Give the backbone structure.
Amino acid sequence: MKAQIACCQMIPIDDKQKNLEKAASMVRREAAAGTDIVVLPEMFICPYCHASFKDYCEPASGASVRFLSALARETGVILFAGSIPEKEDDRIYNTCFVFDRQGRIIGRHRKVHLFDVDIKGGISFKESKVLSPGNTLTVVDTEFGKIGVAICFDIRFVEPFRIMAEAGARLIVVPAAFNMTTGPLHWELAIRSRAVDNQCYIAACSSGRDTSADYCAWGHSSVVDPWGKVVATAGPEESIVRQTLDFDLVEQVRQELPILASRRQDLYTCTLSGGKHIG
C-alpha cells in the first residue's frame, strides 16, 4: 500500500486569516498533485510567542477548525492541520486537529511535552507560561492504516513513539518548529532516531525560517523512512516537501531487522500509565 504525503513548510505571520489562506493555497496545490496526506506546521496560524498563543486561541468549535474542516472536505485530502492554540475553559493547548477526506475530525492531539528550556547562550522559552499539556497519546485510523501524531518537543521522548508503534502506527506525523539553537544539532538526529527506533516513517513538518521573527524556526521539513534514511527534505525557506510512502517497506524492514519482535518484554516494557488511552 502506498500514499503520497506532503509537508507544507510555511512561514506564519501576524495575521490569522492570511495564514489560513496561505495554508489553504498549499493544501489545494497538493490536492491537485494527487497527494493523499497533507501536514501543516506547529502553530501555523500565528507567530510562535506567548502573546500570540493568548490572542489567537479559540475553541474546537471556532472559525479556524471550521475553515480547516471545510478545506479537507473541499480538497479530499487527509489533513494533519499542524497545530493551533486551542482554548478550553481557562486553559490553552497546543493542538493538532486531524481531518479525514470528508472534513470530519478523526483525531485531536494536544502537545504532551511542553517546550520549557533555557539554554545558556541560546534559546530560552517556556511554553508552560501560557500553555497546558495534553494527557493523551494519539493514533488515528485512516484508509492507509494507523497514523500517530506528536508535536515538536514530543519527538525527544522515546516512550510515546514506541507505544504508538505498538498500537499499529506505521507513520508518525510531527508538526514542529525547532529553533536555531537546537535545530542544527538535533532536528535530523531526533526524527531519524525515532524512525529507526520504531521502524516506521516519520513526517516532520516545520515552519519556514523568518530571521526577523522573535522566534526563528530551523525549517528543514523532512520525511524519514523505516531504515532511518531521509528520503525528502527542505531547506529553510517556505516550500513543500512531497514523498511517496510505501507501507510494505515498513513490514519488510521489521522482518529483515526484527528489532520490535526481538524485545525482551520479560525484562522491560513500555506501556501507558494512569489508564490513559490512545485516541
Summary: Residues 196 and 228 are 5 Å apart (CA to CA).
